[in-house]
Amino acid sequence: xxxxxxxxxxxxxxxxxxxxxxxxxxxxxKKLGNPQDKIKAISVIGTNGKNSTIQAIYAILKESNLKxxxxxxxxxxxxxxxxxxxxxxxxxxxxxxxxxEVEKVNNKEPxxxxxxxxxxxxxxxxQYPDNINLIESGLFHRFDAxxxxxxxxxxxxxxxxxxxxDWLPKENxxxxxxxxxxxSALLNSNIIIAxxxxxxxxxxxxxxxxxxxxKKLFFNEDYSYSxxxxxxxxxxxxxxxLKLPLPNVLGQFQLENISTAIATIRTLNLEIQNxxxxxxxxxxxxxxxxxxxxxxxxxxxxxxxxxxxxxxHNPDGARVVNEYLQTLDxxxxxxxxxxxxxxxxxxxxxxxxxSTLTTIDIPNQPNSIGGKDLKNKINSFKNVQYKKxxxxxxxxxxxxxxxxxxxxxxxxxxGEILNLN
Length: 421
Fold this sequence. Notes:
Low-confidence stretches: none
Distance between the termini: 23 Å
Radius of gyration: 21 Å
Shape: globular
CATH architecture of the largest domain: 3-Layer(aba) Sandwich
Oligomer: single chain
CATH topology of the largest domain: UDP-N-acetylmuramoyl-L-alanine:D-glutamate ligase
Helix content: 25-40%
Strand content: 15-25%
Structural class: alpha/beta
Number of strands: 17
CATH class of the largest domain: Alpha Beta
Largest sheet: 6 strands, parallel
């Protein structure tokens, strides 16, 4: 297959999967005519909530008949998800042609796969100069391949917490250093800061961006939301209040992401009507972020019980998913698969009042921890069982009426599960 062959070629261009620096992508983009200088972008930086915030903005902009390009990572089921132009995901042939064209320009120079993919996005995005580009920053931001823009419409800072610590020196594995990596290089435009898990994190962000001359909006200071009775929530900022229906996505944390999306849109004065915001948040497509599986092979196994999948993989993600689970009056069963470089006990320790816990292997992921090893590592649950695959795991769980099953621990696991389903 042409697309897979090109991606395989990309993997041979650099010995490392990640190499945090900007010179390689800057050199390639210069050969491409610096396409990143020709686009209108909203940059999204943070640890959790980046994709959810992007999808909320995207849904509202589409409802307003505005054209968008969207660049996110990682993909869940197929790499095409990362490349949306003119509100349409590229098909295999279109994506292969794009990658091949940029591959020729690169001329076998050393560059990581993510840097190549980012250059491909910028190159294609420049063909739509009037579109709004929603760009998700990768691992950190300061030396991330997406951080080569000279200007943007806005930078959104979503919830920041400790994750990917293995990419930092041991002495720098602190929230202060993570905040610095993610926010010290933000452009001078508009900065919208989402709700943070801890006040310390918000204070670190404020300190780091203190000398940035951007217009700054902080959650709970410049915009906020509150949950009301009768199935709606209330959003408020300097432009006034909006009484909005609850969105089509699960979890209170999604209201935080949606509020940040609304704050960004209203700050940029995109002439979007309130009705378009109301309708847009009912049409958010948020793959593998507390997503209910409503059909397919796995759904058939659980029959009338609820099956959820969430690619959360760090402690703060576990915290917000658990908060949602605690609002449900039923038994909760967790199926867990994780990558080897995570703090497995800290992650699962956030889940409370869980009826059963089953560990499984993540197919096709050599950097994951085996389900047996994961079972043996977890010490916060007395009765943990291991099953080789998701089908055996679901079949082994004795569910009662209204029980739910949640599959979680990794976006890679989520992708494999959705493909199996």
